[in-house]
Amino acid sequence: MTAPIRSHGVFRLTAEDRFRCAKLVLPISGFSEARPAHLKMPLLRSAFIALSRNRLLRRFVERSSVGVKLSSRFIAGMEIEDALRVAEAVNRQGISVTLDSLGESVTSDTEAHKAAEVYHRLLDAIAERKLDANVSVKLTQMGLELSREVAEGIAENLVRHARSLDNFVRIDMEDSSLTRVTLDIVRRLHALPGLRGAVGIVIQSYLYRSQADIEQLMADGIRVRLCKGAYKEPPEVAFPKKADVDANFIRLSCLLLDSRLYHGLATHDENMIAEIKTFARKHGIEPGRFEFQMLFGVRRDLQRQLVSEGYNVRVYVPFGHEWYPYFMRRLAERPANVFFLAKNLLRK
Ligand code: FAD
After folding, report:
1. Of the candidates 43, 115, 30, the residue with the CA atom closest to the CA atom of residue 80
2. Over the stretch 10-61, which tens digit does the pLDDT of each residue have?
3. Is 223 a residue of the active site?
4. How confident is residue 170, by pLDDT bands cut at 50, 70 and 90?
């Protein structure tokens, strides 16, 4: 077996690893043969993603008591205090937290500043209560679709605040129309004096562009959360086949583990997790050098198991009144959740 080569990062992939990772991904020329994404995407997943954008249904469901009850499986509650209480409980299990004040696509500057205010309060509360937690922010909630300047200014203030408290802001990744601008903003913030290391980004393995983005981000020294991706994307930009998304997730995980930075590998997929563990073990990358990330309410058994094995785990804890789109994306990922939730509702 070839020994891993030391490089700019902790380890550089050996030729053998590169070959193994490369085998996992289809060559670009294979994409033209792929069927259109809407034919490949299972019907229920498509339906839930479409429903996540339905304003009428959203208004009705978010206000209904049944809706609120159902959402509690994946949402920590409606208020900041609910989220902090859940964060404390999760921390007691030896699991870190990232707090997400739900909301996206605001329609005025005032709304964007109001959304940011919640995050400033969260950062202060995390410090006061000495929680093991950071925050996850969507740029559309900070006004990105209204004005890049507004969103960037708000995000900069948040990152400065986080830095002053020795904390960290993760900028979530939204749909592919926003990938470029989100990357630009995060890279610009990270390059500002005093902000290096206080802001990170999310990369989605379903996008073809992600490997190039990761290589650029590693050169800049920016921390990444890798996930598969939760939006409906056309085959021009994203792998239509789940097997390719999964293979790319493993390939990109290897690249991240190969850097000297601390990254988050966000998945509930036991195959992905097993591959990552094997790769890390093989290269002597200690469990403390990266973290697994999962969503609140999803695979709690696996979260506990990883902690007991000595891995770092962080749980994404969303809260707030605007839970509908987030909730629908969780149903899209696993439509069986609908039956699970309905059964629980009938039991109560
Ligand atoms: P999948 O292949 O979807 O699922 C594998 C297995 O995991 C399933 O068989 C099931 O057992 C379990 N599972 C997965 N989802 C669920 C669920 N909802 N309920 C119950 N079981 C489930 N996406 C973005 O586009 N942008 C982001 O910024 C972003 N941030 C994220 C942050 C975190 C911490 C996590 C965990 C995910 C984030 N996502 C984000 C969502 C991500 O892109 C996926 O949609 C989601 O994680 C499901 O993919 P998976 O890797 O778990 O694997």
Report:
1. 115
2. 445 555 555 555 444 433 333 333 333 434 456 777 777 777 777 777 777 7
3. no
4. very high
Alpha carbon nearest to ligand 1 atom 1, residue: 269
* The model's pTM: 0.86
Q: Which one of 186, 295, 328 would you pick to mutate in the ligand 1 pocket, going by the greatest count of ligand atoms within 8 A of its CB?
A: 295
Task: Examine the pLDDT at 94 and tell me if it is beyond 70.
Answer: yes
Distance 193 CA to ligand 1 centre (A): 34
Give the DSSP letter string of 121-139: HHHHHHHHTT-SEEEEE-T
